[in-house]
Design brief:
The chain has about 400 residues and is of the alpha/beta class. The chain has 12 helices and 17 strands.
């Protein structure tokens, strides 16, 4: 009998029964090195004792109340995020898409309150912001959007990492009031933007009175070695969105606002039934505490640099390897040809990876990865890539 699951995923033929640290086991008892962390989610690896304890203890007290009551865990997590980002306000959601929806709504409401009732948002080519209708309209993937028209209007897509393209789009469309981007594109192929571009973009947004909105859903929460990837450019956005790593595996998203974006949303203008409940916020607090106390940002930076070097050395002069790139433990290996088959081959070799944009091997291992484990990862992956390119 065929499965009643709607086949929106072509799934790999494996199911995991349990995990520990950077390892996962399948039903046959085979062990896998997790180089993907559930697409950048399981930042503390699997079954981390502190996260398990926080979730179990909270579940035994109360899982859900409602946002019509005070939720102390939510307030505490908002305070932590505000402190780490230097930003003022936080609203919670259940996913990256939802956090970005909130950001889009905030930009529009900001326009509306300032006499611009059809605010437009500039977004980037090859960007990824989610699969809801609003975030899909903002997403720079023709493939993801196709067939779902009509999509919400009010988005202008420009070339990524090109300041003139942003300025010119604003010259042509006076209703622009925000720019939304990832500073290090994830789904788009682990494509970093230039630090100088980010700094100039920050200035341009300030000059023109636009909100700078940074999607840190994949790159945030220590992934690149800073709490938030934009901190490498020493800039502060007006709006930032978070999700993936924030709950260490439980579904949570957040939209963070400051400066001109603070105090824009008011009671009745936005809301969520589940967002920021006691369970996920207790998990979020445990994640942030553990990242801090175990110095996992520094670990992501040093082990990331180590892995980056190992991959570069191991793949140097291999025909077909275009580039190894990324920041911290958010790494991509771009080949000159589609390489989706590597995912299955790595799985067979006991390694979990992903391929994005057809040609980019993506690595997002847990931030607890050690240098030894990074070596093990490289020792499995490099020969697979070499063999594939030699075929
Ligand atoms: C994954 C991702 C999203 C979407 O998050 P979901 O939780 O899948 O809705 C949005 N933006 C970026 C940068 C992402 O990587």
């Amino acid at each position: 009998m065929s499965s009643p699951l709607i086949s929106i995923y072509s799934r790999l033929p494996v199911a995991f029964t349990h995990g520990e640290g950077v390892w996962l086991w399948d039903a046959q008892g085979r062990r896998y090195l997790d180089g993907l962390a559930g697409i950048g989610v399981s930042c503390l690896g699997h079954a981390h004792p502190r996260l398990v304890a926080a979730i179990s203890e909270q579940a035994a007290r109360v899982i859900h109340t409602s946002n019509i009551y005070e939720v102390p865990q939510q307030t505490a997590l908002a305070e932590r995020i505000a402190q780490l980002s230097g930003m003022e306000e936080v609203a919670f959601a259940n996913s990256g898409s939802e956090a970005n929806e909130a950001a889009i709504k905030l930009a529009r409401y900001h326009g509306y309150k300032n006499g611009n009732t059809h605010a437009h948002i500039i977004t980037m080519d090859s960007s990824w912001h989610g699969r809801t209708l609003g975030t899909l309209a903002a997403t720079g993937s023709e493939k993801a959007r196709k067939g779902f028209e009509p999509l919400p209007t009010g988005f202008i897509q420009v070339k990524y990492n090109d300041l003139d393209a942003v300025a010119q789009a604003g010259d042509r469309e006076p209703r622009v009031n925000a720019v939304l981007l990832e500073v290090l594109q994830g789904e788009g192929g682990i494509r970093p933007s230039d630090i100088s571009y980010l700094q100039a973009l920050r200035k341009l947004c300030t000059e023109r009175g636009w909100l700078l909105m940074i999607d840190e859903v994949q790159s945030g929460i220590g992934r690149t070695g800073k709490w938030f990837a934009h901190q490498w450019a020493d800039i502060k956005p007006d709006v930032m969105t978070l999700a993936k790593g924030l709950g260490g595996g439980v579904p949570i998203g957040a939209m963070v606002a400051t400066g001109p974006a603070a105090n824009v949303l008011t009671p009745g203008s936005h809301g969520t039934t589940f967002g920021g409940g006691p369970l996920v916020c207790a998990a979020g607090l445990a994640v942030l505490d553990t990242l801090e106390q175990d110095r996992l940002l520094a670990n992501a930076e040093t082990v990331g640099a180590h892995l980056h070097r190992r991959l570069e050395e191991g793949l140097a002069d291999v025909a077909g390897v275009n580039e190894v790139r990324g920041w911290g433990l958010m790494l991509g290996i771009e080949l000159d040809r589609p390489c989706g088959v590597l995912v299955t081959r790595a799985l067979e070799a006991g390694l979990l990876i992903n391929v994005t944009r057809d040609r980019v091997v993506r690595l997002l291992p847990p931030l607890i990865l050690t240098s030894d484990q990074a070596d093990q990862l490289a020792e499995i992956l490099i020969p697979l890539i070499k063999q594939f390119l030699a075929e």
